[in-house]
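#dry-run=false #mode=assembly
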Amino acid sequence: MTSPTFLPHILDTLRTKNPFADNAAANPWSCIFPDVLSINSKPFEEIARLISTKAGNPEQPLAGLILGESGMGKTHLLRRILDYCRNSDTTTLFVFVKPLFDPDKPLHHLLQEIVLNLSRQTSSVYSFSQFERLVAEIMRDYVHHRVTNNAADNTPSNQRFLKQFESDVFHIFTNQQKVRGNSMEIIEKEAVNYIHSQVPETNKNFLRVIFQYKTYQKRGLVRDWIKGGILSDDDCEILGVKSRANLSEKALEHEARDMLLSLGVLFQRYRLTMVVCFDQLDNLIDSKLIGGFASMIHLLVNDLSSMLPLAFIRADSWNERFKKNSDRAFSDRLESNKIPLSNCTREQAKELIITRFDTIFPEKDKDEELVKSWLLEQFDTELNADLSPREVIYLANRIVRDSDSVPVLFPSVSECLAVEYRIAQETVAADFDSWDPESEYLKKALEIWLQSRRFIRDNNEGKEKYTTRTGYFVSTIKDVRNEEISEIIPFGFFINTSKNWSVVSAILRRAIEFLNENPNGRCVYIADQRCNFSPKWKANELREEFERLGGIFLILDEATVIYWYGLVALFWKIGNGDILLETEQNLRTATENDLTIFLSDQSETFEFQARFNCLFGISDNV
Amino acid sequence: MEQIALLNKILTQIKQREGKNYISFAALLTKLGKTGCKLFGLAGTKPSAAIIEKSLSPYLDNTFMILKGSRTSFLAFKLPIDEIVFEALRIKFQKGPFSPGQLTQHMPMKKDEFIACFNRLLETMRISVSVNAEFKVTVRNINASGSTVNSTPATIPTPQIQISTSSLSPQDDRKQFREAFDELDKGRIFVRICNLRRKLGWDKTRFNSLLRQLRAEGIVQLHAGDISSMSEEDIDQSFTDESNFFYATLTMKPQTNIR
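#status=ok
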């Protein structure tokens, strides 16, 4: 390719702010570049038709399977669905479900993800969340019932209020001052009883709690409780609910199902449709996880008539893994609406390049237009077939990069992954609220790190199991760095994500028991700082005992949690085939093995010492 | 002896499938299974490396040897150590240039032994490397002609690519291509290139040139696929285009008359 000799300042800007350098969209909530609507327009139309059919006939069991290989624009399509939902007069709600890690808690996971999404802003017009929408719908329902069925309430002013309420569901929030005295409190209280009498399938506690979402100070608690969290006794008292501290794993999963069913019937009553999108499913690597995913789909399709599940999967993974490791009913259900994605045509590819170019040069002066023409001309020469959007961007990146006379130095795998890891951490930090304290994520980060440290988990002992709802006992660990020693060291990691002292006490008691049973063992209590340890708790005595026996008490601050969750986000991205590694000779997707090598290389850096090696207290010398 | 035949069979399979002349003890135990382990007196709980070595030693003969890596021990065909390293480098190089450091922990020897072998191969110019700005080494070339690898004790059949000397016309090729695709498709939409290639059994040039042509005409679209669930052979039988994009699956325009 001939390097252009004209307009060096514009080319410099293009290289510096290269809009083609990043070719994978992180998630639908945070796509930086504008969407090119002509790409995958047909699949989108089919999805929109599915959503519209579901909205018109909620009883119809529907699901969609969107098949496309990595880089074909799945995440951008998700973004388009999100925008479609936001522009649908807020009657279609969008939910994006992160990958499942624990096959024994699929419904708990589904509920968590739904709740997380419901607490986001409904649309670009209203600043209300989807939870508030639900509360407003219930209140409108009740006000309508009172005004139309109770003669005493059928006053001209109440009729006016109802009329306004019926034209704008958020009227009750935007005009709270118009609701006299204690009326709001009475409406809330009676609305709960009314709805429960109308829809007995709803969980009454759920209704009582969801109304409290309106109180800004209680939002976090409401969210934590609805998604199945184990709150402290004080927090339970604030919400007026019983503690879940003594519920078993199974009971919690059953309760999650109840909550989902409550949400489902309420959505159906108010003609709301929820589009539940599953992405990054390539990370479900074993049949148990695929089974967990299948049980979510079964519930959504068979029992939650207002919800439409859409699964975005790499075609090869679907054909080779999911279909082979799942029941026929599940695959048939999803395949009944199979929507394949396509590569870009030449015109779409050019449109994609122009769109990205214009984000850097929005003014479009004469010189910039010249550079754009040059870029398109070069691209046209290189393009000889329909390519995926990611390949188009990669090709454009190569043209921009090679326009410099300085020879290209290809970064090593570790250097590439270091950049990706930083991006993953930034993604987590930017949307930290959606990364609640989650034992599954902490456990996964721990496992990834352990693997890179060349320890292996001694699963054959059959000791890996849950100790409590929120803590994990990660089996024994064999140090395989030296074949001569080959010592098996019992290692216990107890991860707490509960804010309840009795749960924390139970975890610590089990950890102490572990240390007593294994005098040569090592034990770490790990908790996200958001589930901090109160100095008032009775569990303090247990903590002292735990530390006296040599246990390591580790509270991860926000920066460290971002480091850990970032590792999980990076792992997902790799699993999804979203990281391309380029060398002088070829281009390939990053693998888990690359991640392990990268982490091994990083293990002695200051950052890693600070973030992970503290687990062992003494770094490598187990 | 039964034991020697079994070890020979396992190592030969590894050589055929992965090109390696060695197998780790852990993988060997898996391959042996319960019955195989019993033959060597290895039944029961997980044996240590020392016990495995002791159990294997009567059967090593002139065919096998035991090597100690940095993480585990290996059973290997009795070959000069430099040849074992050369073969491992050659196999790795088939996927393009790489840093030798990536191999260190997988080699059937300690790191310093590996480095010594690597340096000997450099000195005898059987491999060549380049060094980047950060002095990181990348293997750039493997001099296959200089290879002095002894033939492995077992006779290893080299997988043969079926050469088709068909005199069929290009139109017939297109028809066959479509028919083979339809047979593999069965609602999958995305068909693996390696499966299509095997089904047609054409030589590489014939298959690749038609694939390129159909792609240029917009009849076929190529996609990355999921290499993590593919064997080495599947990956080899896939397709890399002139821009160095690797493709594992393809889709075809439905009901397109590609004649």
